[in-house]
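Dear colleague,

Following up on yesterday's call, I've attached the two folding results inline so they're easy to grep. Please treat them as preliminary; we haven't cross-checked anything against experimental data yet. The first protein's sequence and structure tokens come first.
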Amino acid sequence: MNRFAKTLRPLLLPLALAAPGFALADAAVRVEVFKSPYCGCCERWVEQMRRNGFEVVTKDVQDVPAARRAVGMPDRYGSCHTAKIAGYAIEGHVPAEDVRRLLRENPKVVGLSGPGMPQGSPGMETVTPKPYDTLLVRADGGYETFAKH
């Protein structure tokens, strides 16, 4: 990416994420995922993010909780993988559309969490999905419901 594109990217990203039919790959948003090398559901979540146009780089780690803490996500919101995107932490099986909304709205928070491993969430697909919430995790360690699924 040239210097001009790097300068404009932060300005254009919110518009790109909001535009219906926009190919997100044109504004490739990088996601760095820290996961266990042995977790299949993490790989399925990564594939869901790639299908939704994100540029995903995976890093196999032996200590996912340490990676979670390194990006500022409290352990109580933990899941099986942690991601970093545009200064936010994304914990667990958060749907791509929730990540897009977070980037569009750009709140001053730690990030999003799908705590645990919600049955029916991206990467945890099942014939018997259960309702779950995506949480918006604040800097004070508290949360609010960001989306219901």
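Below is the second protein, in the same order (sequence, then structure):
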Amino acid sequence: MAGTVKHSHLKSSWRCPSNIALVKYWGKRDFQKPMNPSLSFVLQNAYTETSVELHKDGDQKVEFYFEGVESAFGERIEQFLDYISVRLNWVHKYNFRIHSRNSFPHSAGIASSASSFGALALCLTELDFSWSGKPVESPEFWQMASEIARMGSGSACRSVYPGFSIWGKTQLFESCSDDFAVPILGGINPVFYGLQDAILMVDAGTKEVSSSVGHRMMDKHVYQHSRIAQAHENINALYLALLTGNQKKFVEVVENEALSLHAMMMTSNPSFILLKPNSLELIQRIRRFREKSGIPVCFTIDAGPNIHMLYFQENELDVKAFIERELLVFCENGKWIDDRIGKGPEVKSLPQHPPHEGAK
């Protein structure tokens, strides 16, 4: 019996990046499935490192430590484990000790839930695959990790791949799914692999309205159907821009998506506004700089006030001078985060072999 095994001790550790959506998903249906497809890329410097240790000592429990301090987030992890127990029926046979840390401030305008659940899903999937003898580097591994991550946080399903990925059914690829994200493999113009992301910190405080609450407001939104149609149109246009190297179209679609996301928030019932005066000032200055310099720089925004300014590697010196000269005065305490498109998750350690009854 599983309960008779003494001192079994198993561990897996992964580093998983956050991601920034260029075509936004807003609104959920069923369980953690998107109303519309989204397209994103992972970051390089903004990541979560998570280790999962399994043991059978004492009563079943989940201990979650964030940056060395035990956190109430463990309750959300317990709910998550209940959800995924249908896929991973061994999770209720172990106690969990989870350690996690971020490379970025918790309220930095970066999707910490994406990197956190992405890293956790990778740990759990690695354990499951290694126990069953399946190859960890197979496409099935990444697909399963993406699906499990989605059950914790929708956007997390896009964090388990390098570069660009798509989540949600579209006409672009038959493999696109609402259950997991798929990577965009090949065909992208090399200029987009030099994408840089300057995250301009307008306000590091907690959001007034959580993303979960915002998603629910799309259920009866007056513009719901129009927004879904717009997202499909924009994902087609953006994918074509990525293939052809069309920077002008890239800028147009990315900014349209960012403003559409916040338009949905401002026209929901009840409505809410997450942008701050300095957010709007940064947007205006970025557009003015692009118009005067001819440099293809643009902005995107997640569900918060902080601005992600996207630009290309070839323009790095000019853009960073612009940041120092004009933008930092509108950032909280002059803070910004220098990031870029990333290479995806990284395994930090290999798990030990489990007892035979560990995974069925």
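For the second protein, one point worth flagging: Residues 1-8, 351-360 have pLDDT under 50 and may be disordered.

Best wishes,
A.L.
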